[in-house]
Amino acid sequence: MGEASDASAIVRYFRENETHLAPFGAKKPDGFYTEQFWRDQLPKHFDAFKADQAVRLYLFNAKDGTEIIGTMEFSQIARGPFQACYLGYGIAKKHEGKGLMKEALTAAISYLFDELNIHRIMANYIPTNIRSAGLLKKLGFVVEGYAEKYLFLDGSWKDHVLTALTNTNWKSANPAMQLAPSQNVYDVAFGFLKREDDPVSVERGLALLKGEVIARPNDAKAWFEFAGGFDFLGREAEALPHYEKVLAMGVDQLPYEDRPRLFVQLGSTLRNLKKYDQATKILRDGIEKFPDVAALKSFLGLVEYSNGQYKTAAKLFIQSSLYEMNDNSIRDYSRALKYYTDQIDVFPAE
């Protein structure tokens, strides 16, 4: 598991193999090829390990112990009834074909199965990636399906072959497994919905939560997260009735930190559906209840801009920027705000 002192070696690995790894990776975030980026990320990776969310490992050259030659990541660890995770990996081009990744993964998988008691590891590969197909087969992974346009990689949607490896020695040693099945599904679904960097996980969370919200018709939190999943996937028309259901239950039925979020997300959804008057009302109601939440003013500014009220929009943007110094809500919605700012003229006044 990497440490801050490994940042330069990690950057060197990714820079030297940028072209080699590009066809199989997602777009890199800003600063990815800088040491500061990795000095910031590595503590977060360790926190994810401690929280039982992911295990990220680096392969070092045995000859000098300092050169990084590959990476392995067991991510999206889910407990409850699933007890599974996803596997991703990469190795330097100059070290391909030497059996090093097979050796490393054999040891890592043993740790996941024996120490972390994971029941199932899933690994998916692009059909043209013959090396991955052969490696996974040698490790015992079984092909379970084929997903068209599964992940957006290297500028286009790529089909993937779906494989998995099952732990035949898995034991129900975790007391959480003895809880009521519905409670486990509920918790696992929430975990998936929180992984907003991965649309596949959000889809899985929605699928798991669908039965739960029906079984919990008065659970405002469940309906709110259910709506948010559709919202994140750009399915605002499906999200809208669920947000409205939560509003009808009463905003005070949500945990306090989610109450302003309901107004932000419902207002944004209404804007995207070009229901500008309704969006304005919802966001102004939210501002009245939570006057110090800057995100409400930012999203109202977007609505007013879309509705042709440019001066009002400018005033709201300035107000929200002043509030931002003492409020984290802008940061919570930074990705959405950046996207809507870039697309600000997509929703013009009619």
Description:
By secondary structure, this protein is of the alpha+beta class. The chain folds into 3 domains: 4-176, 3-Layer(aba) Sandwich (Aminopeptidase); 179-240, no CATH class; 255-350, Serine Threonine Protein Phosphatase 5, Tetratricopeptide repeat (Alpha Horseshoe). The chain has 15 helices and 6 strands. The protein has a 6-stranded mixed beta sheet, sandwiched between helices. Mean pLDDT is 82; it is low at 174-183.
Summarize the entry for a quick read.
The protein is α+β, with helices and mostly antiparallel strands.
Which structural class should the secondary elements be placed in? alpha+beta
The strand count comes to 6
Query: How widely separated are the two ends?
Result: 54 Å
H and E order? HHHEEEHEHEEHHHHHHHHHH
Provide the helix percentage.
40-55%
Which architecture of the largest domain would the CATH scheme give at its second level?
Answer: 3-Layer(aba) Sandwich
User: Globular, elongated, flat, extended or rod-shaped: what is the shape?
Assistant: globular
Number of helices: 15
Overall structural domain count: 3
Q: What is the CATH topology descriptor of the largest domain?
A: Aminopeptidase
What oligomeric state best describes the polypeptide chains here? single chain
Q: Could you tell me the radius of gyration in angstroms?
A: 23 Å
Please mark out the parts with pLDDT under 50 across 5 or more consecutive residues, or reply none.
174-183
What proportion strand? 15-25%
